[in-house]
């Protein structure tokens, strides 16, 4: 399902003296099946933009196309519920949304709101709990007895249980330990690869954006200032600095190495493994030349 | 939805009213609430209204905020107005609609009562709009200080008040966030039969309570860590200062009260 934003502006407290624009004429289109990262520093409008992806916020001006549905400024949008089933959002600290008596019931909450039968919803919950890396017996526990990391996984399972076609992730790993972070990110990447789930990752982490995303959009002061492939985007540190961002650690390391050896590697490497290989290649070439 | 709430919000400024000591403003408002009931004819209500407009002018608060403050009571105002018109059968008949008659006294009382609401809402709004919540609680604490003699925990009450005021915006943000998260999971708060809508409140309230309790616990820990141990012997950073302006404003109010007393029926 494609998502397309055309000239979208959004103002908080519109029509009051506290009116404040969070988005200005944002143009962004996300094709079905891509893994898109939206990056930008704090206050750039990332969290506002993601609420437009399933009609939680309506643009103050402009239009949002979600699949074949159009949400337009000034017009009453009827029946946004079907959109919400197709576009799942994992909010920041999603564990704050847990409320049911048991983990099982909480995971079933989403799908049952969209008319899935109790039996099917339970089946989904049982499958998902393993997928998010939790033991079966946790289903009967109260979500409030779990650790923070476990609650996060349950909340993620609760969104996945709706079987959305697009999943929007807002800093899904904030506050998790490094291993938990990697497990969660790998889980979403696997889902993206195996089920073709369109994934939109809103993040501060350049490393995550570099490792997982097909395309990156940079937000700055409420505008979408730059979109493109990670390799091209991260090669240009000067432009990134303008938007108060810096390339991922790997790229910075590569720049340093290139300065030291006085030679450019054949491409900008986005992940450690890639850089290691490139460096090995460069060293072998260096030896051959001698 | 939440972001539109303006009632009870503090608007920083530097007007005469802003500069007043919170104690004098509190006394002013409490006295005013009583004084409002002195008015009982056209002249006295006109004076009351003129005085209210004068205070608004002095506060340099835009009328927009005051009108917004009216919104929660507008229904009550309309209701009492209509009730008076329908029920009061005194005085000459002004309008005969056949099924009902509008009497002079009814119309008059209706207008008076609505006016009473209007000036009360305006004056109390001005207090909250021109005084930061912290100053209000500071002022209240000092005003209530004599009650410590009868073992009333004044400091603790004031602290409770400032903490609750402090957390209103936080909880509103929180509500908004959780509401959105549940809406994203297909929960529908604004449609469907009442029974379903009531049921949809549970996914909102449970997380809200959980986080409120967590916040309260964190706050208690943070206070204890910083050595808080109640009001005994506690000094203040912000000192309240009673100025000539404060005396002046109370004298003015007294003058208005005296005028109303003389001119009322």
Which short descriptors sum up this protein?
heterodimer, A: 290 residues, alpha/beta, Rossmann fold, 2 domains, six-stranded mixed sheet, four-stranded antiparallel sheet, 40% helix, globular, B: 265 residues, mainly alpha, two-stranded antiparallel sheet, 2 strands, 68% helix, flat
Q: What can be said about this structure in brief?
A:
Chain A has 290 residues and is α/β, with parallel strands linked by helices. Chain A is built from 11 helices and 10 strands.
Low-confidence stretches of chain A: none
Instruction: From the 3D structure, determine the CATH topology of the largest domain in chain A.
Output: Rossmann fold
Distance between the termini of chain B: 46 Å
Sheet with the most strands, sense and barrel status of chain B: 2 strands, antiparallel
Shape descriptor of chain A: globular
Count of separate DSSP helical elements of chain B: 10
- The average pLDDT value of chain A, as a whole number, equals 91
How far is the first residue's CA from the last residue's CA of chain A? 54 Å
User: What is the subunit arrangement here?
Assistant: heterodimer
The side-by-side strand order for the widest beta sheet of chain A comes to: 6-7-8-3-9-10
Domains counted in the coordinates of chain B: how many? 2
CATH class of the largest domain in chain A: Alpha Beta
The chain pair with the largest interface is: A-B, 27 and 24 residues
Question: What percentage of the residues of chain A does DSSP assign to strands (E)?
Answer: 15-25%
Please provide the count of β strands of chain B. Answer: 2
> Using only CA atoms, what is the Rg of chain A?
21 Å
Helix content of chain B: 55-70%
Secondary structure layout:
The complex is a heterodimer of chains A (290) and B (265).
Chain A: E1 3-12, E2 20-30, E3 35-39, H1 46-50, E4 61-66, E5 69-72, H2 81-86, E6 87-90, H3 103-113, H4 118-131, H5 148-160, E7 166-170, H6 178-195, E8 198-203, H7 206-212, E9 215-220, E10 223-228, H8 230-235, H9 237-242, H10 249-261, H11 272-289
Parallel strand pairs in A: 3-8, 3-9, 6-7, 7-8
Antiparallel strand pairs in A: 1-2, 1-4, 4-5, 9-10
Chain B: H1 16-19, H2 22-35, H3 42-59, H4 63-87, E1 93-96, E2 101-103, H5 104-130, H6 133-144, H7 154-184, H8 194-199, H9 202-225, H10 244-263
Antiparallel strand pairs in B: 1-2
Helix pairs in contact in B: 2-5, 2-6, 2-10, 3-5, 3-10, 4-5, 6-7, 7-9
